[in-house]
Amino acid sequence: MTKTFIVDANGAGDFSTIQEVLALPEEKLTIILKPGIYSGQIFSTKKYLCIKGENPETTVITGSIGAKQPFSDGNITGTFRTYTAYFSGQAVHLENLTIENTAGQGSIAGQAIALYASASFVYCKNLILSGFQDTLFTGPLPEKEKIPGGFRGPEENLPRRKSIQYYENCHISGTVDYIFGSADVLFKNCTLSVHDTQTECYITAPSTPSNGTGYIFDSCKIQKAEDYNIQQHKNVYLGRPWRKYAKCCWINCDFGEIICQQAWDNWNDAENEKTSCFSVFNNKWLHSEEAGKGKFGKVLTSQQADEILKISETIRQSVLNSCSKEA
């Protein structure tokens, strides 16, 4: 059984900070988070952790660390030490919260992770994940870094462990590669907002292993954030491959008016077009589905789409069952 604690930034709960609860020795915790602003990095390796707020608009976990900032070891911080909240362990359940990184545009702050999600099973419902470049990292890390020191952070020297994740009714915002990583993930009924930037935007950057499922977006919506200027904006892509076996599928989604006809980018490597798997089915956008599949994506048949939806249901059930068992 889990132990439950109330955290209230105004002092009316068992604790006033999330970090105080996470310092307890218990490996299974439920945190009821009262409305308020909770600042500072959150780090958890608990076996089971559930954090539930009341309203994502008023319950905010906030940080402001960018990759270009200096770190205490004399190096720059780098991508994977910028997180506002880091969660590993066996199962994590987050609900009715905002997790944000306010470091700013990538051109100034560099990469700035809001949520670093790396537990074996992750369930996020009614979350607002807010940032610019690299908002949401769905761990684990790829096996090898491309740049020496590029993986500095909490899992740099750890074995890579499979993660299965489910995001339901979440709002995720960003600019460049703002959903990235190696996990198998279902995004269901989520809204993806694109902030203004004068560079190309890539909503996803999966690093799927060769035997992975990758990202599945089902019944999601892509929209402009309030600061988006369509006259000044460059191309917005559905994604690009961070590693060569990247997989990403969009089914029954609404792309609004901002996804470019090319749809996918090969990350300056034509070889990625041969190994990645980017696909679409029955989406709404300005282009026809066939024209909008891009240079190397594909349009699924109805049978193929049904198979993807079966996989997505397996992901959903696996995550929900695992989180409930841990509780």
Structure description:
With 327 residues, the chain is mostly beta strands. It has helices at residues 18-22, 106-109, 272-275, 289-292, 302-326; strands at 3-7, 28-33, 36-39, 42-44, 48-52, 59-63, 85-87, 91-95, 98-101, 115-117, 121-125, 128-130, 136-138, 164-168, 171-174, 176-181, 184-188, 191-194, 201-206, 215-218, 221-224, 236-239, 247-251, 277-281, 298-299. The strands form three sheets. It has an eleven-stranded parallel sheet with strand order 1-2-5-8-11-14-17-20-23-24-25.
Summarize the topology:
Blueprint: E1 3-7, H1 18-22, E2 28-33, E3 36-39, E4 42-44, E5 48-52, E6 59-63, E7 85-87, E8 91-95, E9 98-101, H2 106-109, E10 115-117, E11 121-125, E12 128-130, E13 136-138, E14 164-168, E15 171-174, E16 176-181, E17 184-188, E18 191-194, E19 201-206, E20 215-218, E21 221-224, E22 236-239, E23 247-251, H3 272-275, E24 277-281, H4 289-292, E25 298-299, H5 302-326
Parallel strand pairs: 1-2, 2-5, 3-6, 4-7, 5-8, 6-9, 7-10, 8-11, 9-12, 10-13, 11-14, 12-15, 13-16, 14-17, 15-18, 16-19, 17-20, 18-21, 19-22, 20-23, 23-24, 24-25
